[in-house]
């Protein structure tokens, strides 16, 4: 094997290794464990807007969880409990409210104004990790925090609408809940998610292509490698 062939083989191997590294990084940075969870229990749901739709990962926000009529809540807020089926460690939560959803787009009065998140390992003892009151003007709520470990995550909505007087008797409309096991970066600031659709400016939302799959990164890198290899091979042939 001559020197020219050795260089070609080394170039191919390095390209494959680079693609693998990018795939591992992309996979670690985009681990939304809510996609893998089960819905343990919830206060209620409506036809066509079931509790499971809150964590179905629909990027265009065409599906939602809607729970109406809190007559049976006995003064308790709307609530839903996610079961990760094992202890999970996570440190970032994103909640997509009504006014970002397809059916309720722009209806900011339907955005949840008060809610809290609690964690538990046995569903008996709960620890509050987030509590929000008077949350106006945010159609997407996002919060990062010190890593916590739990099997269950409970979301309770104390004010399902922007009206501070709203209570369990008003319907709650939530389009998506993401729970990230790993931060995007090591910074304390809440990161900008370049993989999410941009907030829509009209009621007809067209999302750009998403690139959170490691396979996409591999394809891009391998394509660049093939082009580079073709150029080098053409140069060798001329030589």
Question: Can you give a write-up of this model?
Answer:
Strand 4 and strand 5 (127-132) form a beta hairpin. This protein has 239 residues and is an alpha+beta fold. It is elongated, with a radius of gyration of 23 Å. The chain has a domain at 32-180: Galactose-binding domain-like (Jelly Rolls), CATH 2.60.120.260. The protein contains 2 helices and 7 strands. Mean pLDDT is 78; it is low at 184-213. The two termini are 17 Å apart. 22% of the residues lie in helices and 29% in strands. Strands 1, 2, 3, 4, 5, 6 and 7 form a 7-stranded antiparallel β-sheet that branches. It has helices at 3-29, 214-238, and strands at residues 38-42, 65-67, 78-97, 114-120, 127-132, 140-159, 172-180.
How would the blueprint of this fold be written?
Elements: H1 3-29, E1 38-42, E2 65-67, E3 78-97, E4 114-120, E5 127-132, E6 140-159, E7 172-180, H2 214-238
Antiparallel strand pairs: 1-3, 2-7, 3-6, 3-7, 4-5, 4-6
Helix pairs in contact: 1-2
What multimeric state do the chains show? single chain
What's the Cα radius of gyration?
Answer: 23 Å
The largest sheet is: 7 strands, antiparallel
Structural class: alpha+beta
Task: Provide a short characterization of the protein structure.
By secondary structure, this protein is an alpha+beta fold. It has helices at residues 3-29, 214-238, and strands at 38-42, 65-67, 78-97, 114-120, 127-132, 140-159, 172-180. The radius of gyration is 23 Å and the shape is elongated.
């Amino acid at each position: 094997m001559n020197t020219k062939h050795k260089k070609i083989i080394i170039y191919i191997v390095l390209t494959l290794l680079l693609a693998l590294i990018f795939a591992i990084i992309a996979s670690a940075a985009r681990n939304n464990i809510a996609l893998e969870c089960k819905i343990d229990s919830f206060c209620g749901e409506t036809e066509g807007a079931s509790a499971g739709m809150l964590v179905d990962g629909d990027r265009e926000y065409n599906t939602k969880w809607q729970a109406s009529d809190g007559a049976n809540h006995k003064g308790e807020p709307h609530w839903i409990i996610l079961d990760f089926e094992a202890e999970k460690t996570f440190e970032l939560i994103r909640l997509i409210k009504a006014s970002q959803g397809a059916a309720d787009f722009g209806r900011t009065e339907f955005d949840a104004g008060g809610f809290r998140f609690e964690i538990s390992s046995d569903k008996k003892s709960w620890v509050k990790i987030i509590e929000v009151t008077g949350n106006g003007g945010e159609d997407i709520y996002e919060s990062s925090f010190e890593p916590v470990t739990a099997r269950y995550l409970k979301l309770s909505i104390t004010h399902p609408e922007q009206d501070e007087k709203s209570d369990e008797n008003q319907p709650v409309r939530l389009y998506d809940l993401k729970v990230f096991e790993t931060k995007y970066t090591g910074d304390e600031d809440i990161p900008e998610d370049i993989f999410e659709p941009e907030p829509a400016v009209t009621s007809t939302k067209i999302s750009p292509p998403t690139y959170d799959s490691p396979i996409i990164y591999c394809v891009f890198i391998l394509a660049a490698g093939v082009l580079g290899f073709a150029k080098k091979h053409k140069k060798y042939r001329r030589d």
